[in-house]
Design a protein that fits this description.
single chain; mainly alpha; 3-stranded antiparallel beta sheet; 3 strands; about 70% helix
Amino acid sequence: MKDNSINDLVSDLLYIPPLIDRTVKRKILNHTRNLVDLTPLQFEVVKLIEKEGQLHVAEIGNTLEIAKAQMTKLIDKLVELNFVDRSFDKKDRRIINIALTGHAKETLKKTKKQFHDAIKE
C-alpha cells in the first residue's frame, strides 16, 4: 500500500515542472509582448540567438522543437521586423545562419530591466 502511495506521489510530481515552466514562460512572454512587438515564439527565437549567438536555421528549429516549414515563416517575419539577419555559411552555402541585428540587441538591452521585473513578479 505504501509503495502505491509513493508511486502516485512521484507520478503527480512529474507533472509539476512542465506546468510551472509553461505558467512562468507564458507570464514572461505576455509581459514582454507589451515591450517588443514579437509573438511568444518569435521572442523565444530571439532569446535563443541572444544566448547562443549565430545559429543555423535547423539548430534553432531543433532546439525549440519547431517544424522546418514553420521556421521559414518565423525567420521571414523576424527579418521583416529587423530583429535578425540571414547569411549563408562560408563553408556550405546551403546552410543559412541567423544572427541578431543591432536593432534587436539594442531593443533587448533597453528592455532587460522590464524582463527582470516580469520574472520577479
